Amino acid sequence: MKKIKKQISKLTTGAKNKVPENWQPHLTRKNIIIGVIVAFFLIQYFQVARMTGGLTSLSLRGSSLVDEVGKLTEVSQMIGEDLNEVRGYLLLPTRQYSSSSDSNESPSVSDENENELQISLFKYVGYLGDIERKKAAFDKNYAFLGGLASNSELSYFLEDKGLILGQISDKAENYYLEIMDSEVGKVLSFTLNKETGDMVLEAASDSTSVVSTDTDEFAGDVLIYLRDNLSTILTNIKKIEASNIYIVESFVKQEMVDLLAAEQLTFVAEPTQTDSALTFDIQNIATEVVAQVILSLEDFSITLHDSRDDENIVLQVTDLATSLPPFIEKLDVLPAVQKNIIEAQLVLAETFEDNGFKLLLEENSLYVNNLAREDEYRFYYDIFYGDASGVLLGSIVIEKSSGLVEVVGPEGADTMNLLFFEEGLKKKL
After folding, report:
1. 28 vs 31: CA distance, rounded Å
2. Which terminus has fewer CB within 10 Å in the chain: N or C?
3. Which of 176-190, 323-337, 382-396, 406-420 has the least mean pLDDT?
4. DSSP character for 427?
5. CB under 8 Å to 218, separation ≥6 — which residues?
6. Closest by CA position to 397, among listed 356, 354, 429
């Protein structure tokens, strides 16, 4: 350290002898050390800048190289496709000419089987296995149903509770078995699907899939289910029946009968049942469902649903006598075809009054009668050359059966849907 200080002292003394006198007061040991440090950092800065410039140049060259490799890969793929065409012509098997980039693809892509014969064989074997599984499930569940009558413990319970086990019945896609009560009717039912082999147990407001291993276990499960739920099932059946009667009687009151007749509506007294609800339909004159009365099988609430409401809002009610009349009066009861006709008439009327359309007619010396004539099947808006007394060129028509807008020739033939008309097609007018 002393040697360094001596060297700096010598450097300072020698420098003072060589610089002008007015600079000598600034040429101190401290200032020389600061100058050396600044010079060191400047040298480092220029070296780093030179290296950065070199890397930038290398990056640009690398990008150019990647582009060239990409072009070469594209060319090689085209050559591979051409070679496969030649091999196909010579009845030789084609090959997959892969590049290095292809080898880096994920195994799931490269391992995908594209052999149609193998894929079809896999599907067929899977199909056979599926058929056998469904058949085994059907045979097992059908045996379960047949074994209920021979289970003594279940038979004793049914007799004690006044319940009757019915016979297995064949109903279209399913086999069906019921356990009945002499007062309330069906208490429990089993539905066995012929195609899938699945079996479902259904009660008044409940349903569950059946999963058992043998006939005795199945009969035992049914017995346990009845012991645990019979009282609730009978109560729910009575609630459903009472609600059902209440809904139907609300629609046979004279006030509702008159209102339905005025709106040309029909109430369907036979409901559609799902796992969670009974649904009564209200239909218009075209038998289209415009509203529904829904009885929940979970909480026995009653809701009104406007089937044509885009927002799909349901209204829960407690008193149908006061809720139904305003609900019915607000319904959109028009048949869909009639709505289509009205919409088409409004659009045509608006178009006929459009200034641009009028100018188009004037430029082409045409006249459209905006008052439609009609027959049994159509409304006609006739198009004439010149004026209303000119030559009839054709007509724009609205079909009464569908509401479609079409164009026809002067004789009413050569029909074309107006929405499909384009220039260049065969002229219909």
Report:
1. 5
2. N
3. 406-420
4. P
5. 144, 147, 148, 210, 212
6. 429
| CA–CA dist 313, 307 (Å, integer) | 9
Q: What is the pLDDT of residue 35?
A: 65
Q: In the chain, where are the structural domains located? A: 26-68, 124-236, 253-333, 337-420
Per DSSP, helices labelled H in 148-195 are 152-160
Q: Give the whole-angstrom CA distance, residue 180 versus residue 47.
A: 98
Backbone φ, ψ for residue 423 (5° rounding): -65, 140
Measured in degrees and rounded to the nearest 5, phi and psi for residue 150 equal -95, 0
Taking each continuous run of H as one helix and of E as one strand, the counts in the chain are: 11, 18
Buried b (16+ CB within 10 A) or exposed e, 94-120: eeeeeeeeeeeeeeeeeeeeeeeeeee
Residue 157: count of CB within 10 angstroms of its CB: 16
418 CB neighbour count, 10 Å cutoff: 15
CA distance 54 to 47: 11
Nearest-5° angle of CA 55, CA 59, CA 64? 150
Cβ partners under 8 Å of residue 265, min gap 6? 282, 283, 284, 285, 290, 328, 331, 333
pTM of the predicted model, to two decimals? 0.60
Q: How confident is the model at residue 353 (pLDDT cuts 50, 70, 90)?
A: very high
- Write out the two tokens for 241: 């029946």
Contact (CB, 8 A) for 256 and 324: yes
Contacts of 8 (CB under 8 A, 6+ apart): 29, 32, 33
Rounded Cα distance between 15 and 37, Å, is: 18
Q: Are 141 and 192 in contact (CB under 8 A)?
A: yes
Q: Are 223 and 153 in contact (CB under 8 A)?
A: yes
CA gap 31, 273 in Å, rounded: 100
In order, the DSSP letters of 253-321 are: SHHHHHHHHHTT-EE--S-EE-SSEEEEEEE-TT--EEEEEEEETTT--EEEEETT-TT--EEEES-HH
β-pairing, 289-296 vs 272-273, is: unpaired
pLDDT of residue 65: 53
Distance, CA of 65 to CA of 166 (rounded, Å) = 83
Residue 366: pLDDT band (50, 70, 90) is: very high
